[in-house]
């Protein structure tokens, strides 16, 4: 009887507590706006904006209405790329982002308001927030959105990872091996993430290995989850990083790459 | 079984009526789902046959006329759709008392309310009024039952009909014809009930286990009497004859070619396509699906007291069954096994790795009343102890147990399709853990006001998961301007909806990547988005 009573009353008590806690912690539109307004004056024209959790679309709405010309990053997967100055707006249940725990990322400012906060983050050194890969001499750029070769295709687009998103390049590997090259100045570091898109993982017929070759060589087997795995790699003496993707006995794989340069 | 007294019937009616009123008020805000759009269209088309029947009865029975009027949406039987049509004809077209959507939804709401009333009677019949009350309130305050209860769909209705068959079976003595007829209406509601005979087979094997197993022993052994098939009871004959007969007679589409068309109907459901489901952040598009899916989904969509008490009640029931497992005892546990099977069979069916799992929790909702009963019975000693101290404490304890569910229901409204409860941290917890919250296209309802106010004349709307039939239903009900046009072509749209669900990720990305789109509204609950609305700049 005592166990039964404890189970019934305990579960009800926990339910009431959790309900009350979740209700009192729900975000409000007014609070979000108030936080945005607190930092609005300090947001500069080139600053990027981001919000967490990445699914909380109301941040996108309110930030978009207040700052229509600013780039918005799309969540955790979109934070692998470096940034000059990034305003990160967080709700109380925002996830911890490992890529922002790096020594290269400085917190210049932190403003808190009713469980939410706005952080101004800065990557040290000169930064190019998007790195443009090339394939067989075809170079992507802000204007050129896609490149093709017999071994595969690159396309700058929004990448989807089962409900999570990032800006970057969709890599369609048409043959068993495909090499993508990224150029910068010697001594630069390529920072970003590579992994299966949701669609790519769903249609994968085997494993994929990515080899990053710059000043060092990194080799990784792609995990069996959609989303980006972070990497950081210095260029070789010619200022380039090569990424070779090898599919284990199959073709037509789809991966996502989202990266930028740090000097 | 305890007798059902007049006062119990009055309580059941009262519970049902109160629930009906709540559902009716709630559904005024709830969006039209994709399936409702199809069923509205079907209801309108089926109405045509009744008009022909009243004007030229002979012509109504020709194959041409049957195919013309009953050919649409023949993957589902028509009891509910005919009720939708009748309700629309009476309450909307003839009396003008309700909108078309409300009139179409009324039969579904009545069935859901009946489900609550019957759950009360199940509790009364097996344990008494206290368990009846708590069972019914557990069911009524289950967020997703409340959501599906508002719909002009079949899921809440088939939950009720499954329960009605179970009650008819429990009270079958002297009422075999009633059992057969109820079973017929149930299989004419939705195909879930076709699995009820399998449940009865398992039950039959259980209650005759001793006799059957004894048959394996040699006749020389003590107490062994060789194989003897137990006598097949009359109710099997009535269910087996009346059920299929009602099914065949209720559905004119089957009449021209019963074997071929029933064969197609079975084949359709045996080879049903899969729709993607997001589960712990992973999009599940194709089998094999995780066996844990239905159990986990119940754990995160039912209130914690109900989940805990249901598990407790199930364990308690298993203890009773195990106690009578071996030789020597007569099977006194027939009812216990029946209730347990009613809870387990629908869940186990969905747990099959190749069974379609789309639709949230609705495809095994027919097990829920039995789970609510076991949960309530598990709580009975607590209620008894309270009543011994002061009988007025009992309602307070019941409220303490069921209000978390009611609160979740209220918090999720009008998007109860995506309701999540305490174990996963509510709506936001579920979003953080990657659970699905939309699949039926109803969430656009709340954003229609903005479009009506701001869209230019004759604007094209890309509706994503809201289908054309739902779009037209909104227009017929005056919820959406008549001049606005539905389009599937994103390129020529002036407004775009993007639902936050796995098969619409591409829509969200495609709209966001357009240089001429801007996000203008988000329909969300506690910050969790259901659908976003984008507008073409300058339009």
Chart the SSEs and their pairings.
The complex is a heterodimer of chains A (263) and B (539).
Chain A: H1 2-24, H2 29-40, E1 48-52, H3 57-66, E2 85-90, E3 105-113, E4 116-123, E5 127-128, E6 133-135, E7 138-139, E8 146-149, E9 152-160, E10 165-173, E11 177-183, E12 189-196, H4 198-202, E13 208-213, E14 217-221, E15 229-234, E16 240-247, E17 253-262
Parallel strand pairs in A: 1-2
Antiparallel strand pairs in A: 2-4, 3-4, 5-17, 6-7, 6-11, 8-9, 9-10, 10-17, 11-16, 12-15, 12-17, 13-14, 13-16
Chain B: H1 6-27, H2 34-55, H3 57-60, H4 63-70, H5 79-94, H6 100-126, H7 129-140, H8 143-149, H9 155-170, H10 176-187, H11 196-207, H12 209-214, H13 234-250, H14 258-270, E1 277-279, E2 282-284, H15 293-301, H16 304-323, H17 334-351, H18 368-389, H19 393-412, H20 426-432, H21 448-454, E3 460-462, H22 468-476, E4 485-487, E5 495-499, H23 505-513, E6 517-525, E7 528-536
Parallel strand pairs in B: 3-4, 3-5
Antiparallel strand pairs in B: 1-2, 5-7, 6-7
What features would you describe in this structure?
The complex is a heterodimer of chains A (263) and B (539). Chain A has 263 residues and is of the alpha+beta class. In chain A, 19% of the residues lie in helices and 41% in strands. In chain A, strands 5, 8, 9, 10, 12, 15 and 17 form a 7-stranded antiparallel sheet that branches. Chain A has a 6-stranded antiparallel sheet with strand order 7-6-11-16-13-14, with no helix packed on it. A 4-stranded mixed sheet of chain A has the order 1-2-4-3, covered by helices on one side. In chain A, a hairpin with a 2-residue loop joins β3 (105-113) and β4. In chain A, α2 crosses α3 (57-66). The longest helix of chain A has 23 residues, at 2-24. The radius of gyration of chain A is 21 Å and the shape is globular. The model of chain A has no long low-confidence stretch (mean pLDDT 96). With 539 residues, chain B is α/β, with parallel strands linked by helices. Chain B has 23 helices and 7 strands. Chain B has helices at residues 6-27, 34-55, 57-60, 63-70, 79-94, 100-126, 129-140, 143-149, 155-170, 176-187, 196-207, 209-214, 234-250, 258-270, 293-301, 304-323, 334-351, 368-389, 393-412, 426-432, 448-454, 468-476, 505-513, and strands at residues 277-279, 282-284, 460-462, 485-487, 495-499, 517-525, 528-536. In chain B, the strands form 2 sheets. Chain B has a 5-stranded mixed sheet with strand order 4-3-5-7-6. Chain B has a two-stranded antiparallel ribbon with strand order 1-2. In chain B, 50% of the residues are buried. The mean pLDDT of chain B is 95.
